[in-house]
Every structure is written in structure tokens, then in C-alpha cells.
Amino acid sequence: MTTQTATPAPVTAVKPPLRIFLTILHLAGVGILGGAIFGMLGGLLGTGLGLLFVAGIGLVLLVGLVYALYGLGWFEIARVGALYRTPIAPLRPQPRDRPGFGGWLRSLGRQAIDGRMWRAVANFAISALLGFIVLRLFWGLVWSIFISFAPLTDADAVIGPFGGGGIAVAWAPLVGILGIAACLAGMLGLALLHRTLSLAIVIRSKETELTERVRTSTAQREGAVRAADVERTRIERDLHDGVQPRLVSVGMTLGLAQQKIDNDPDAAKELINEAHTSTKAAITELRQLARGIHASVLDDRGLDAALSALAGRSHIPVHLDVRMDPSTGSGTHASTGSPTHAPTRPGREAEAAVYFSIAESLTNAAKHSRASEVRVTVRLREGNILWARVEDNGIGGAQVQPGGGLDGIANRILAAGGTFRLDSPQGGPTSLEVNVPCAS
């Protein structure tokens, strides 16, 4: 399973005064909540370690700690991006590289050491510390404003903002004005420091971003190569096991007919009829093979019609639900198979990847699952993501084998920049989900 990446836009250098004010408010809010949040996280860690060997309770708490840290990191990245109007790729959970409990455990381990998550958590901790200082400076600002008017009272001295000795009333206005200037300057400096640190910690550097893009492109290229190898192997197997023996048989039958055409015309006619029947069967197999390589209906009429034709040829009853309009939820009704109106067309690459993934899933279900029904759901989701789910009620136990059909699906989806997830416990059901970004 692969993850999708997004490229942050360049950060705007100039921030209006309103942005400074909003940053101060953010720091104050984080300063208020930070102590409680880190207290809760520390409690989870301490309790989890303390109960680690008590009926597995500690393990549950530590798993909850990982998810809590992920949620905190996701919030911090979203907060910084919204505050500074900077598009940042959201923090995404680590994908499973294999189905079942083992795959989940491996993804949990990768999540626990995810550097991006920890950078976001560290930035939240720094923001909480800066926020605490901002709250103290705000209290100092309020105190400075009040003591500036101390000469209007009958008091001889005023108490300092944090206790301590008194300040003579004669000096109070000067101290108040200096305190106001110092507190405002301090809050302004902390706001600018927060911006600098957040953009340096949360938003990856240009070099890191380019490295990530190269890594993603390399993975997609490798997936495309592997998908092409799997597809080539499948075509060779289908030709070798199906069409080629049939054509050899046709040639041998025509050779026998040629030998008998003078001495036994009736037998020759039977042989020619047999060869004719085999030829038509070979043509049908070639058409099916060509359709497996490229579905022309996909280009002519779109994914809706192509999946309807695919479901009609399936040996297992298919319940098809395709909705290609994210705003209205309209699309193909499973009962009629006809679109309610002209559907939205995603990119050709996304359509082809999803179509062949569903086609291969239906083939696997017919060959191995012993299923009596298959449900196919396709949605064009917000964010221009084409999502599909194929679920059968078979015996389960499907696994990704190198060179197999599921391996071909995974590689094809990876080459299209999407994600692939398989869930097939023993006893069923088997479900396969794919997400493919559409061309913008």
C-alpha cells in the first residue's frame, strides 16, 4: 500500500499584523491546553509501562498513546497550515504492507517512529512553552496598564506583577509604560519566533521535499515496471494455455481435412466444420484477451459503462454501485445499470487502474473464493480521489503472491500514485479497497 503525497506551496514571507495577533491568540490557547494534554500523555505512558505485564492492559494503553500522539501531530500540522495559510500535506497514518494483524502491528510500529509525527509533537510542545510565556506577559501587560494610573489613587506604593516589593507611586507611570512596551515587544517576538520555528520544524525543507518526491517517483516507476511484467506474464500464459493450442489444433484439423478431401469428402467436411468452430472459439478468446489488455469501452463510454459490461460477463452475480459525482452522489443504479445523468470523468490513468483492479478481483473471486455474490462500490470522492471497494462472501484467505493477480493490482495502483488495501481473513469475507488520485 502506498501513500499519496502533496507538495507544499512556497511560504509567504510577509505576514500582516492580523496574522501576528492570531499567532498570539494561538499561543495563548496552546499554552492553556498544552499542560493538560501533555499531562494526559504522560499519564498514559506511565500507566502503560506500569501495567505492561498485567493482562495486556499496559499494551492497550501504549497503543492508545501512539494514536493520541498521531492525533496531536495531525492537529498541530493542520493548525500551523491554517494559521500561516500554507498548504501542508496532512499527517497520514502509516499504511499496512500486508493484511491481517501482522500488517496492522507493523504499521503501528512505523507510526510510533514516524519522524514527521514527532516533529509536529515537538513543535506543539515548544508552542505550549511559548504560550505559557505569552500568558505571563499578558498578565504583565494588564498589570502595567493598571499601575500607570496609580497616581490617581491614594496608595503610597503598588505591588509588583508577580509579587515582591512595592513600587513607589511616583515611579509607577514610568514603570507601567516600560512594562507595556516590554510585554508587547515580548509577545511580538514570541509570535515571530513561533512562526520561524513552526515553519522550520513542521514544514519540510526544500531538499527533504525533493528527496521525498524522488522517492515517490521511484516507487511509482518500480510499480509500473512490476505491473508490466505481471501483465506480460499473464498474456504469455493465456496465449500459451488457451489460444495457441487451439490454433495448433485448427492447423492439424485442416491438415487432416486436406488429406481426406479427395477420398472421403464427408469426413473432410466434418473436419472443416470442427476447425471452423475452433477458429471462432479462438477469435473469442483473443477478443477477451485484447479486452483484458485494453477495454475500448472504457475510453468510449467511461468507467460506468465499462464496469457494467464487466459485471454482465461475470460468472458470479455482481451488485454494482457506481457514483461519479461527489456533490450529488448520483451515478449508476445497481438495479438499472444506467446513469442518472452524464457522470464526471476522472483521469484516464485513474479509470484504467480502477477498472483493471476490479476486473482482476472479479476473476480471482470466480476462480478461488467460492463466493455466491460480489459487491462493487465506486465513488469519486472530494479531493478528486477515485475510490473503489470489491467485497465477496467467499472463503477468504487471499494473499498477495509475487507475480499473482493481487500483486498485479498492487503494482498497477502504486504506479498510478494510489493506495491498495486487502483484508481477507480465513473464512471470509474478502474485501479490496483502492484509492487513486485523478489527474487535475
Strand-residue proportion: 5-15%
Give the overall silhouette. Answer: elongated
Helical residue percent? Answer: 55-70%
The helix/strand series, from N terminus to C terminus, equals: HHHHEEHHHHEEHEEHEE
- Low-confidence region ranges: 1-15, 328-342
Mean pLDDT: 76
Total helix count?
A: 10
* Main β-sheet description: 6 strands, mixed
How would you sum up this structure, described in words?
62% of the residues lie in helices and 10% in strands. It has 10 helices and 8 strands. It has helices at 17-50, 57-83, 100-112, 115-147, 172-201, 206-260, 265-293, 296-313, 348-369, 405-415; strands at residues 157-159, 166-168, 318-323, 331-332, 374-381, 385-392, 419-423, 430-437. Strand 5 and strand 6 form a beta hairpin. Helix 1 crosses helix 4 (115-147) and helix 2 crosses helix 4 (115-147).
Task: Summarize it.
It contains ten helices and eight strands. The protein has 440 residues and is an alpha+beta fold. Helix 1 crosses helix 5.
How do the helices and strands line up, and which of them pair or pack?
Elements: H1 17-50, H2 57-83, H3 100-112, H4 115-147, E1 157-159, E2 166-168, H5 172-201, H6 206-260, H7 265-293, H8 296-313, E3 318-323, E4 331-332, H9 348-369, E5 374-381, E6 385-392, H10 405-415, E7 419-423, E8 430-437
Parallel strand pairs: 3-5
Antiparallel strand pairs: 1-2, 3-4, 5-6, 6-8, 7-8
Helix pairs in contact: 1-2, 1-4, 1-5, 2-4, 4-5, 6-7, 6-10, 8-9, 9-10
Task: Kindly list the characteristics that best describe this protein.
single chain; about 450 residues; alpha+beta; six-stranded mixed β-sheet; two-stranded antiparallel ribbon; 10 helices; disordered N terminus
